[in-house]
Structures are given as structure tokens and as C-alpha cells.
Amino acid sequence: MSDDEPTIIGNKRVLGIVPSRPPVGERKDPRADDQVMVWPHLLVRHAVVAVAVLLVVLVLAVLFDAPLREIANPTVTPNPEKAPWYFAALQELLANFHPVVAGVLVPGGIVLGLLALPYIDRNPATAPSRRKVAVATFTFFLVAWIALTIVGFAFRGPSWSWVWPWQEWYGEL
User: Is the peptide bond before 30 cis (omega within 30 degrees of 0)?
Assistant: First the structure.
């Protein structure tokens, strides 16, 4: 009987038998100091960090005032009417291009391009210093989006005209 043929034990065919323990030279014994029990050690640490973050946020909320704007008036639209800072890049694109291009094709192309990047750059290395194409492509998209966000947030004034932020500030803080 060759090694390629399955072994028959009882009425069942077994394709291979795995030893219960690896050979002594290949086995790594875990030391007691390498192990951390989930309960209580890990969960207590997580709870302590969560409470600490909650206290920091609470102290910041008490110390710094974050007032709301005046009550909404549907008859008065502020000039310039701006999207929040996280949508400023998309609003900047919408101001310069057709809505289908700015709202669907460009963001969709960016997402698809970043999703396709591992298939385009087939370099097997995992270190960022050896993945020049992937790092350069991601950096280009990131810098372009950040630049559009800054322009849309800080450099747009009344009637969506160009203003210098050190001359007149129209961004929301």
C-alpha cells in the first residue's frame, strides 16, 4: 500500500493520521508569564481604559463650552452655506463638476482604485518601504482629499468665492 492511498480503519476511510503531539523539538511550551486570562485581567483592563476615556471626555465637556447656533430660521440662509468639514471635499467637487461626476464617479473611482490596489501592485513584500506603488497611490488620494477639504472649508466665502482665511474667516469652529 502506498502513501497516496487512504487508510481504512473500521468501515471509515482515513486520508491521514495526525499525531496528537508535535515532535519534542518542534513543540513550544507556553510559559506562565506569557499567558493572560481574559477574566479578570483583560476585561478589567478594558473597563479601566473605558472609564478613563469617559472621564477625559466628561472633563473636556465641562471645561469647554460648545454652544449651539441660533434657532433655525427657514427664511434666512447663511452665506456661504457650507457642508460640515468632513463633507467639504465633496462639496468642493460638486461646485466644480457635474453632480454625477463629483458625487458618484470620483468618489467611486477612488474607492475602487484603492480596492484594486493590491491586485495592481503584486509586490509580495509587506513592509511599507518596499511597497512604493501602493504607498504613492494611497498618499496621492489622501493628499488630494485633504487638500479639497481644506479648500472647501477654509478658502470659500460668500457666494462660494475664493477668500484667504487670514483676511476673513468663514469656516465653522
Answer: no
Give yes or no for a contact between 130 and 119, defined as CB atoms under 8 angstroms apart.
Answer: no
DSSP count for the chain of H helices, then E strands:
5, 2
Cα separation, 136 vs 141, whole angstroms: 9
Measured between alpha carbons, how far is 25 from 73 in angstroms, rounded to an integer? 77
Domain count along the chain:
2
3-state helix, strand, coil in the chain (%, to 5): 55, 5, 40
Find where cell 513543540 sits.
27
Q: Which of 67-71, 100-104, 118-122, 151-155 has the lowest mean pLDDT?
A: 67-71
Q: How far apart are CA 81 and CA 161, in angstroms?
A: 12
Per the domain annotation, does 101 fall within a domain? yes
147 and 89, same structural domain? yes
- Write the single-letter amino acid at 19: P
Question: Both 147 and 121 in a single domain?
Answer: yes
> pTM higher than 0.85 for the full model?
no
